[in-house]
Amino acid sequence: MLRKSISWGLCLLAMTCLGELHGAPLVSNVVAEQSAGTKTVAITYDLAHSEGLASTVTVEVTTNDEYWEAVGSLSGEVGSGVTEGVGKSITWDAGAEWPAELFLAVKVRVRADDGQAVGDGDPVPEGFSRIPAGSFVMGSPESELGRSADEVPHEVTLSRSFLMGETEVAWAEWTSVRDWALSNGYADLPAGRNGFEGDESGTHPVTTVTWFAVVKWLNAKSEREGLAPCYFVAGEVYRTGNLTPSCDFEAEGYRLPTEAEWEYACRGGSSEAFYTGEITSTGTVPLDPNLDLAGWYEGNSGLNTHPVGDPQKQENDFELRDMHGNMVEWCWDRYGTYPVGSVIDPTGATASSSRTLRGGGWFSVSESCRSANRNGVTPGLLDPIVGFRMARSVVE
């Protein structure tokens, strides 16, 4: 157990130290000790992996055995790319984490995640949020400003949790995966566009990519990381051409969210037009104050994209950003009318040539940025307002 003091003149007397098993990675022999006369804690551990893969290593603490908090003031063999070995070391600057509080007992654990199949209770990969299973009313009430007739309210249950990208995919990440893909069977992945007028950082979202290109890219990212891809054509991994693949929702690889997953994740428990509140202005002038808190749209974007996950805009309760702006986002579903009555795990219309777009973008009016807003377009659409974010199934 770790004792922490208000004055920091007292020692951190002892810790309960735990390793964490996640699939193939195994952490063991964790030891944590405060360096005498300092506010730092030295942590050592052993890391093994049955397949020799590198892991992302994190450190968490709890004071009540219920809520575990990740600590961030760490250096050493921690973070991504840690390979297996004995006597791995981490230094924790506990003074930066706990400047004044007093707890009688603290437990510490070291976790390792190899980025492979994610199950309930496993660590969430960096850049993703775990979205819990649940039910919600999809669509919008007739009283909502700016609504369309295709937003008929109906109850949807998502029976399994899933992972959702905290932000849209940036152009730099698109380029990195594409460079690998072009040498590994993905012959026709386009370069995409660096935002509308993105800068050299590559942090603006990738734009001007078709639905076909996006699902191929997601397969490429899965294969690059050793994950089972989701998209297949005639039993083969979908890598080239403008074809209509099937989706294996049981695979652990990257995929597009379904339209229902997208709206559920966007709302973050909210039933209002935006996760920051109701809509009060349907156009661009005057600014809608609630939308201005959450997203970049025509009224505030300066007619350009912004870096993904820009902290100037509020995240929702699922820690997602840009759901109400910056880019309109591809979803998996064929576009069509909503089903009548309650549904479980819907995946879209069965007969339609259009795919669904969700969320407003940097050139959208306010009403197009609402949680319930939806559009159906040709999957071959190339548009500098359209991008995407990733999802992953949580494998049981």
Structure description:
This protein has 5 helices and 25 strands. With 396 residues, it is α+β, with helices and mostly antiparallel strands. Strands 1, 4, 5, 7 and 9 form a 5-stranded mixed beta sheet that branches. Helix 2 packs across helix 3 (211-224). It is globular and about 65 Å long.
Give a summary of the structure in a few sentences.
This protein is α+β, with helices and mostly antiparallel strands. It contains five helices and 25 strands.
Descriptive labels:
396 residues; 28% strand; 25 strands; five-stranded mixed β-sheet
Structural class: alpha+beta
Largest sheet: 5 strands, mixed
Distance between the termini: 33 Å
Low-confidence stretches: 1-23
Number of helices: 5
Task: Write the SSE topology.
Layout: E1 16-19, E2 25-34, E3 40-49, E4 55-62, E5 69-70, E6 74-76, E7 79-82, E8 85-93, H1 94-97, E9 107-113, E10 128-131, E11 134-138, E12 154-158, E13 162-165, H2 171-181, E14 193-194, E15 206-207, H3 211-224, E16 231-233, E17 236-237, E18 246-247, E19 254-255, H4 259-267, H5 289-294, E20 328-334, E21 343-344, E22 355-358, E23 374-377, E24 386-387, E25 391-393
Helix pairs in contact: 2-3
